[in-house]
Amino acid sequence: DLVRQPYEAGPPDDKHITKLTRVVIQSLACDFDVDTCLSDASTAYKDWMDGIDSIDPDLRQQSYCSAIRSGGWEEWEWALNQYNVSNSASERITLLRAMGCSKEMWILSGYLQMALAEQDIKRQDFRTVVQNVAYSPSGRTLAWNFVREQWDTIFEWFGTSSFTLTSIITAVTE
Predict the structure, then answer these.
(1) What is this structure's pTM?
(2) Which of 63, 80, 81, 143 is the Cys-Cys partner for 41 at CB 3.0 to 4.6 Å?
(3) How far apart are CA 94 and CA 111, in angstroms?
(4) Which residue, among 82, 102, 104, 107, has the nearest Cα to 92 in the 3D structure?
(5) Quick count: other Cβ atoms within 10 Å of Cβ 56?
(6) Backbone angles phi, psi at 93, to 5 degrees
């Protein structure tokens, strides 16, 4: 099977290129809703929620995203709680990105509102939230409308930071 062999985890001493290939294949498999990929990601995520963290660090982003996309509020809220307790900047960014993967419009809308209200989401992470909701097929229009409706606040916050403002505008208009 073209996907199965490179998709399955290999030994820890695998070559770097093999590990990178595995990440790309898993990402594509989950993006194209390959059942085994979604099932594996959801199972690993549920195990993590139960206290067994067996998610390969190289596959965390895709695993989190796939589990949240195919899950619901429980998976999304777990990610939010992990974001709030994590001391790792890279883990926090991974979680922020994954929370934007939900298919549930009400969750994505609430996520944007939380970021705006700085409720559980730091202002410094606002751009990441908007970008990742916008990159989600379910959230593209939602993010665009949100930025238009909240433009005055967004401009007040980031108007002097051309990088942040440009990143937000680019994400919602691509």
Answers:
(1) 0.87
(2) 63
(3) 15
(4) 82
(5) 16
(6) -65, -40
State how far the Cα of 117 lies from the Cα of 99, in Å rounded to an integer. 17
Alpha carbons 29 and 91: distance in angstroms, whole number: 23
Highest-pLDDT range among 21-25, 68-72, 157-161:
68-72
CA distances from 77 to 2, 102, 142 (A): 35, 11, 20
How far, in Å, CA of 75 to CA of 64, rounded?
9
d(C-alpha 74, C-alpha 68), whole Å? 9
Overall average pLDDT of the 105-117 stretch: 96
DSSP track, 121-149: S-GGGHHHHHHHHHHSTTTHHHHHHHHHH
CB atoms within 10 A of CB 42: 18
Query: Taking 80 as the threshold, does the pLDDT of residue 19 lie above it?
Result: no
